[in-house]
Amino acid sequence: MPVVMDADRIGRTLARIAHEILERNRGVEELALIGIRTRGVPLARRLAQLVRDINKHEIPTGALDITLYRDDLMRTAVGAQPVVRRTEIPFSIDDKRILLVDDVLYTGRTIRAALDALIEFGRPKAIQLVVLVDRGHRELPIKADYVGKNLPTSPSQSVQVHLTEIDGRDEVEILEP
Amino acid sequence: MKKDLLSISDLTSDEIHLVLDTTEAMREIGQRPIKKVPTLRGKTIVNLFYEPSTRTRTSFEIAEKRLSADTLNIAVASSSVLKGETLSDTAMNIEAMSPDMIVLRHASSGAGHLLSRICRSRIINAGDGMHEHPTQALLDAFTIREHKKSIAGLKVTIVGDLLHSRVLRSNVLLLTKLGAEVWVSGPQTLVPAGIERMGVRVSTNIDLAVADADVIMMLRIQQERMHGAFFPSLREYFNVFGMTKARVERAKPDVIIMHPGPMNRGVEIASEVADGPYSVILEQVANGVAVRMAVLYLLAGGAEVD
Predict the structure, then answer these.
(1) Are B43 and A83 an interchain contact pair (Cβ–Cβ within 8 Å)?
(2) Choosing among A38, A67, A74, which should be mutated to test the B contact, i.e. which has the most B CBs within 10 A?
(3) Which of A80, A88, A62 is nearest to B19 (CA)?
(4) What CATH architecture applies to the domain A3-68+84-175?
(5) Which ipTM was obtained for this model?
(6) Are A114 and A69 in contact (CB under 8 A)?
(7) pLDDT > 50? residue A17
(8) What is the pLDDT of residues A162-175, one digit of tens each?
(9) What pTM value is reported for the model?
(10) CATH of B8-133+286-300, one of 3.40.50.12710, 3.40.50.10260, 3.40.50.2300, 3.40.50.1370
């Protein structure tokens, strides 16, 4: 089970992305971070903290659960429904530059669902995508704006991101079938 | 989850917690500018109501629409039932148009079970006679959990027309399953025989029953189901069992007062209590929509197929 990113690497990667965000957006006033549940949420919070450390600016941060927007709900008649958790976006997204944050970008279907969900909350000026790992194999025309690490994988492998807030440690590993 | 929700006994305590947790998430949808998610797009839900209902029918319909289901309401007053069609014939005809779910309210206990046997659609019991009203108990549990964090160990006192109440039965099943201490109180004539076998404490002394209660749940006097003299007069009922401010003060200082509606003010509950600071009656109604969204979502997915 090869570990492809350790805690130190994840920390430096997120710091780099925080700088990239500031560089590309030339100012932070209109920015807001929205993490996709589950592991996008702690990543969004960490990015908010990193930006605060750099320029003392507080970026509003929210959490988005995309379960109710999934395109594979009710497609099979067997098995329980996926668990729905709370969406918490305690600010208006109108005219904001939204940084959508997730841990792994794979088929792109989660991001498609997240875009659908976000649009119902208002009309942001722009939506940019931040991912810790891009493992390829897209099934939809979706591309990340900020990538922590490009990770070539085969579809039979699985990429597991562990974060301290949820899993007790920071680590990205590839699991073989 | 099983195919249908007919009774609280269809749910394990884990499933009850799943419904309540999902309700949390569903409630947020009701606070958005666009109160709608696409989850049940293309699903058809028939609301089949054989008894008058404002709250429950409206609540189900709003829940269905917020999940993007196609809904249609059949109120018996304008249907073939008046021409003498039986419940099972009506159900089979609706079934022939292949809806995905049927929400049923009926005056006969067990009506949902009958439909469950003859329909492939999922059946949700929205109140069957004097038997059960499971979504009411779930929304009550959600409201209690909101105020008290946990249900286990609470003293919950249910007062009123115990005999005719489907809300009572569903609540007793649910609350005892989650570990609450449930007391029931009402005139002897309205206490169902053998109710203590459901694991509740029975007292016809309301002051004893409400002492140190965390939750007081009032039940409506259901005159439409009373074919006999169960108590001398409504005024006397109020004097002996009505929830007054003085009685509320015997309970814990942070007690909450609940009522499934519709209320008979001045019969089972004094107006100053119904509108008072302890009352969570309108919160119950608000939570009803989110609970029903949770139930619809969880039932719409996979259960075992036949």
Answers:
(1) no
(2) A74
(3) A80
(4) 3-Layer(aba) Sandwich (3.40)
(5) 0.88
(6) yes
(7) yes
(8) 999 999 999 999 99
(9) 0.93
(10) 3.40.50.1370
